[in-house]
Amino acid sequence: xxxxxxxxxxxxxxxxxxxxxxxxxxxxxxxxxxxxxxxxxxxxxxxxxxxxxxxxxxxxxxxxxxxxxxxxxxxxxxxxxxxxxxxxxxxxxxxxxxxxxxx
Length: 103
Prior knowledge:
Blueprint: E1 6-7, E2 26-27, E3 36-37, E4 56-57, E5 76-77, E6 99-100
Parallel strand pairs: 1-2, 3-4, 5-6
């Protein structure tokens, strides 16, 4: 994959993607569950409609990518401030059971 890659039907599950450079990659509507994204470069990456369930993302990663309509069930949402990240139209049921930043 390179910075010009776009996928709308990919399955990448239960992988350690720590420190991966996914800058400006398009991974829309892909099955990406159970992955570890800590310290990954997600700058400009679009994960719209992707299944990110059971994933782990670095706090700064949430602010680098587009997450609209992503499935965030059972994710480790440490550092995610839903006031600063556009997760609409993610339904409350999609983030049920997840913990996120509260001030």
